[in-house]
Design brief:
The protein has a single domain, classed as OB fold (Dihydrolipoamide Acetyltransferase, E2P) (Beta Barrel). Helix content is about 15%, strand content about 35%. Strands 1, 2, 3, 4, 5, 6, 7 and 8 form an eight-stranded mixed β-sheet that branches. The longest helix has 17 residues.
């Protein structure tokens, strides 16, 4: 009986550790654009490293809101004062490797939502 109980406990542990903990919800997606919501992840809270690409991170998505001194194209709205754990909605242009930008249209945005 002890081995059986231990096996069940290990099984529940394995299942619990492998469950998807993503906060991302895809609200709309096309070939070039995506609208999604999710919580800002640690390590991606409104960073602007020396490469000049300013972004936030939502799970494994990088959301770019500024690129150095680039004023060549229109940019959407960015709501400042965001913190880790804040739930945000993003509408932007899909790039590659889970990168999204709000450059390219004034209708794109990153905004905090209450949920």
């Amino acid at each position: 009986m002890k081995i059986y109980t231990l096996g069940i406990i290990i099984l529940f542990f394995i299942v619990g550790c492998t469950q998807n903990t993503s906060t991302v919800e895809i609200l709309m997606e096309s070939e070039n654009e995506v609208r999604m919501s999710g919580k800002i992840s640690p390590g991606g809270e409104n960073t602007c490293p020396t490469d000049g690409v300013c972004s936030i991170k939502i799970d494994n998505y990088e959301i770019i809101w500024a690129t150095g001194w680039d004023n060549s194209s229109s940019r959407g709205e960015f709501e400042n004062n965001l913190s880790i754990g804040d739930k945000v909605e993003v509408y932007g242009k899909k790039l590659n490797n889970n990168r999204i930008t709000i450059y390219g249209s004034e209708s794109y945005y990153i905004k905090k939502i209450n949920h």
